[in-house]
Amino acid sequence: MTGLTASPRVIKGGLVLLDPATAAVRRVIALQYNPDNLTRTLTAQTPEAQGQSRAEALRLRGPAVETLRVEVELDATDRLHDPDRNAAAVAHGLFPDLAAMEILAYPESSHLQSNAAQAAQGNLEIAPMEAPLCLFIWSRNRVVPVRLTEFSVTEEAFDSSLNPIRAKVTLAMRVLTVDDLGFAHRGSGLFMGYLQNKERLAGLASQPGLAALGLSGLP
Question: Which of 69, 116, 200, 219 is the most exposed place for a label (fewest CB within 10 A)?
């Protein structure tokens, strides 16, 4: 006997939606299971990409364009085995869980109705609808503002009412930077914290000498 009875607490990844004006938390979406893989792609913003002079080859126009992709598994089976505590799952299966993520790709219905009413009144300048600020959370080292760029779902099993009870979701997101939001935006402060944390972590990486690369000096 070791005397250890408690399992280690597993931190979940997920999404947080903030009010774009007040930064108040509107919704927290914790992933049921942490995905085994997180794919990230960084594309540097270089002058060459804009057809500019070779004299600026070492310059960067701004933060890299970073995209994220995760595959999320959802399963309502355990909840269905305890129906008294999971009435929503019994009535709707995984529809509520899926809808909580799907609405990231939609403007609010009230905004659509308001814009339609303004158009009917002859208003020719209708401001685009602003979505909540979405944060992707993957540990304390990765709290980053994102925009959902792709959502795909495969529903794999259904209950007798055709509610999905098992599904796989692919989320693709683009990191929002100061170039996208402007420095005054709450999301830019979060991005700058994310970037500064990258710089801090880079400083912790081991730094071998040139000998590790088979060189005694540079040519």
Answer: 219
